[in-house]
Amino acid sequence: MEPEEADQWIRATWTGHVDAIEAMRGADNYLMKAGPFHCPFLLNDNVGLHGSWFDSVEWLERAWLPYALQLGLRYVAHVVQADRGHDILSLTFPEPVVGEIELQIFHHVQEAEEWLRTCQQSIGWPVRLGVNSKTPPR
């Protein structure tokens, strides 16, 4: 999981088989990496995943999401894994989620990137990662 300065978002790329413990560690790693940047954009790329990996949407909503929101996360582009029958977010949220956070489900990384760029334009996001010292607009 790394900030991508050129695109001004954080990209999480998951590959292989990831068990629930690894998934929680990876999600927590996002919080550690995102903290200094106050970046509202996350591209969550699951194309390289195999098999079921994480089934706790409740944990994401109850434990992880409040911290991510405090750090400024507002837009999540979730790219489903190739075996879509195991992708818990696309099964749980088949339609876009809009509220404090906007979650969109995609089948191709390029579509997710385009959507994040549209979100950036819609809120006038001209800052560079690592330079922004304020919380992003809501």
From TrEMBL:
This protein's source sits in the domain of life called Bacteria
Q: What is this protein called?
A: STAS/SEC14 domain-containing protein
Q: Specify the species.
A: Hymenobacter profundi
